[in-house]
Amino acid sequence: MSDPTPRKDMSLKGLELFQVCARQGSLQATAQETGLSVSTVSHHLRNLEDHLGVALFDHTRKPMVLTPKGHVFLRNIDQALHTIRKAKAEASAGNIAEASYLRIGAIEDFDSDVMPDLAVYLSKKMPDCDFLYHTASSHEITRMLGNRELDLGITTSPPERLRDLRDRPLLLDPFVVVLPALSEASLADVVAGQSKLPFLQFSSDLIIARQIAAQLRRLGLTLPQKFECGSNQTLMAMVAAGAGWTITTPLLFSRARRFQPQLRMHPFPGKRFSRTLSLVATPDCSRSVCELVNDRLREALKQHVLRSFQQTAPWLKDQFTLIE
Q1: Beta-strand relationship, 152-156 and 274-281
Q2: Of the ranges 94-108, 202-216, 218-232, 270-284, which one carries the lowest mean pLDDT score?
Q3: What are 148-196's pLDDT values in tens digits?
Q4: What is the C-alpha to C-alpha distance for residues 75 and 272, in angstroms, rounded to an integer?
Q5: Is 244 left (phi over 0), alpha (psi -120 to 50) or beta?
Q6: β-strand pairing of 225-229 with 101-106
Q7: C-alpha angle 47/48/49, rounded to 5°?
Q8: Residues 6+ apart with CB under 8 A from 305
Q9: What is the pTM of this model?
Q10: Band of the pLDDT at 1, cuts 50, 70, 90?
Q11: Contact 256/232 with Cβ under 8 angstroms?
Q12: Partner residues linked to 177 by β-bridges
């Protein structure tokens, strides 16, 4: 005798939400990551469990924990969902307007002008697409790309290999020295640690801080440190107030417009060194979408960042530049 109560159909959205929820352990966190309401996420998960006729989560525990059958189901669908996403990306590769969902992460260095420009442009080019934009550190964005929590990332190129991620170098951003405008100390004395100005540095857990520290070690420099901070704007405010000096990049300096009258940017003395900013994509992301984002990012960087430095700091012309 057949079951008189028909089961709900199993949807791709339900499978994707199950995968996210299994990783996050929370309906609220799943809703936040996917841009859906908690009730919508819960509805999809209930439908999936109804269709399978088994409990995938132990709903009495927080954070949510997979049941033994839930663990087996997750293991079997992970590769299947990867294959489906890749197939969808390839099928839509020639038709950007049909893209339905795109998750982009970027370091905060781009959030003043470049990312708003990109968001407006993509919303016009991809009118039926739902977008999720996420700002985080380079390390966090790389981790999210590796876990398939993002499709595209704009980040500092990490020194380690990116496994199966596609890395497209975007911008060469050289390191520079920033001093208070009224400082009378010479650049050479400041960098050698022979002035009264203390060195104000980025938080040591950031990739940019590790790059700077490595260069200072190569030069045999040990600088007295008074202040460590993860915020570029706070560092610029401290230097503008005459509290010290710092090593940063032109891109970061460009974001500190309100403090620039009280700041002076100088080339790093001696051997130059730079960081590379890249557009990083997962294998699932359509190449045509990557090309669209890459082209617009380059145009936005020219318009909002690079052109102004051609006037104010012509010595940066061959150092602060797009990577072709």
Answers
A1: antiparallel
A2: 94-108
A3: 888 899 998 866 666 778 889 999 999 999 999 988 888 888 888 888 8
A4: 48
A5: left
A6: unpaired
A7: 95
A8: 113, 114, 250, 251, 254
A9: 0.70
A10: very low
A11: yes
A12: 247, 266
| Distance of alpha carbon 93 from alpha carbon 95, whole angstroms | 6
Containing H/E element for 279?
A: strand 274-281
Burial of 63 (0-12, 13-18, 19+ CB in 10 A): exposed
Which two tokens mark 172?
A: 């060469």
Amino acid identity for residue 111 in this structure: D
Q: How far apart are CA 23 and CA 208, in angstroms?
A: 29
User: Tokens 């005798």 label which residue?
Assistant: 1
Rounded to whole angstroms, the Cα distance separating 227 from 316 reads 28
2 contacts 32 by C-beta, under 8 angstroms? no
Q: What are the tens digits of pLDDT across the range 42-52?
A: 888 988 988 88
218-242 pLDDT tens trace: 888 888 777 888 888 999 999 999 9
- Cα distances (Å, whole numbers) of residue 137 to 154, 189, 215, 322: 10, 32, 21, 21
